[in-house]
Every structure is written in C-alpha cells, then in structure tokens.
Amino acid sequence: MLKVYGFSRVNKMARGKTRDLRVLWALEEMGLPYEVVGMDHPQHDLDTPAYRALNPFGQIPAIDDDGVVVTESGAILLYLARKSGKLMPRDLAGEAQVLRWCVAALNTIEVPILTAWFVDLNGGKGTQGSDALHQWGDMRLKQLDGWLAGREFVATDAFTVADILMTHVLGAGTDESVVKDHPNVLAFQRRCIARPAWKKTFDAYCDRVEAA
Predict the structure, then answer these.
(1) Are strands 62-65 and 34-40 parallel, antiparallel or unpaired?
(2) Looking only at Cα atoms, what is the longest distance across the chain?
(3) pTM higher than 0.90, yes or no?
(4) 211: closest CA among 3, 41, 21?
(5) Which of 38, 73, 93, 198 could make a disulfide contact with 22, Cβ separation 3.0–4.6 Å?
(6) Whole-number average pLDDT of the chain
(7) Which helix (DSSP H) or strand (DSSP E) does residue 92 occupy?
C-alpha cells in the first residue's frame, strides 16, 4: 500500500498548515488507498538516516509507492494524478495548464507569501525588506485575483491538483488575512475548502497530529 510520510507531532504554530495535507487531500479526492507513517518532528524523526535516505532534505511530505519514492508536494501530486488518472486532464493541452498552475502556485505565489511570513516571524516585521516582500506578495495576489474573475477553478473548468496546491499555498482557510482584500481569490479558496475531501482530510489530520 502507498505510504505517506506525514507528521504525527509538530510545533503548535505549524499544526494544520503542513504540506503533507496537500498529499492527503489529493489522495482523498482520488479515492486511492494509503497509510500514514507518522513522523515526530520535535523528536527529530526527519533527521534519521532512514528518512534522509528517502528525502535528503529531511522534509515532509514523502511517499513510497511500492518502492517508488517521491518527495516535494508538487511532484507527489502530479505523480498521483498520473497514477490515478484523476484531477488531471488526459489531453496534452489540459495537462499543460495544470502543470502551469502547479508551478505558479509553488513559485509565483508561495515564494513571496512564505518569505514575508518567515521574515516577520524572525524579527523583520516593519523593516524595509518585510514591506517590500508584502508588496510583492500583494501584487501577485492582485494578479491572481484578476485571473480568477469568472473562473471556478484556477487551471481548467474542473477541480485539479493545481487547485489543491494553490488553495494550500493561500492558507487553506486557516488564515484569511492574506487573501481578504482579494475577493476572487477568497471566493476560490472558500469554494475549494468546502469540498468534502478537504474536510475529511483536515479533520483526520487534527485528530492524528499532536501539537508540541
């Protein structure tokens, strides 16, 4: 059975926001069987030689699909979409749009948002660098808001793995402050997290993952 390496314990600030949620959500949407291998972050499970053999960066998530090891949330979702034939169009043009928006979520959108959060968290809030990062992120969100005007989903007319990545990058509803000034983005986020598979995934995660 496909194994998902996800958190069993993580620091309180990160709980509910970790990237294993992206993989677990996709698996629920696809209806694929899996088991979670719980990793205790405060106990340094990610630093063990066994885990570093799977992921040299010591990060979550990772999957082991009968010997096929894949890391990085975007790569995992694309692999699962190809494996299942779900959440990804079968035609080349449609697949290209999903790839396009997966990359956009993880680069164009996530980089400024995550970097600004990290700088602020580490004492940089109110600095010139922090202000520049927030302006950069806001510019990208305005551009995304324009794209989503009149669209239900980000890449195609149907829900795809690109929507999972984009929704989670935007906070998956755990903190709407990032997107509150962008009505189309906010509506998109709320539409995606209203899906039963996300609710099932998040509830199971909260039951399983302890806050350290």
Answers:
(1) unpaired
(2) 49
(3) yes
(4) 41
(5) 73
(6) 95
(7) helix 92-103
- CATH number of the domain located at residue range(s) 92-158+160-194 in this protein: 1.20.1050.10
Tell me the mean pLDDT in the region 201-207.
97
> Alpha-carbon distance 162 to 170, whole Å?
12
Residue with tokens 């600030």: 13
Q: Do residues 209 and 14 make contact, with C-beta atoms less than 8 angstroms apart?
A: no
pLDDT of residue 122: 86
Q: Of 54, 56, 60, 69, whose CA–CA distance to 22 is shortest?
A: 60
Domain boundaries in the chain?
2-87+197-211, 92-158+160-194
pLDDT per residue over 118-157, tens digit each?
Answer: 888 888 888 998 899 999 999 999 999 999 999 999 999 9
- Which residue carries 């009968």 as its tokens? 66
Per DSSP, the three-state class of 142 is: helix
For 1-31, what is each residue's pLDDT tens digit? 999 999 999 999 899 999 999 999 999 999 9
Distance of CA 24 to the CA centre of its chain: 10
Please, is 67 exposed, middle or buried when counting C-beta atoms within 10 Å of its C-beta (0-12, 13-18, 19+)? Answer: exposed
Using omega within 30 degrees of 0 as the cis cutoff, is the peptide bond preceding 61 cis?
yes
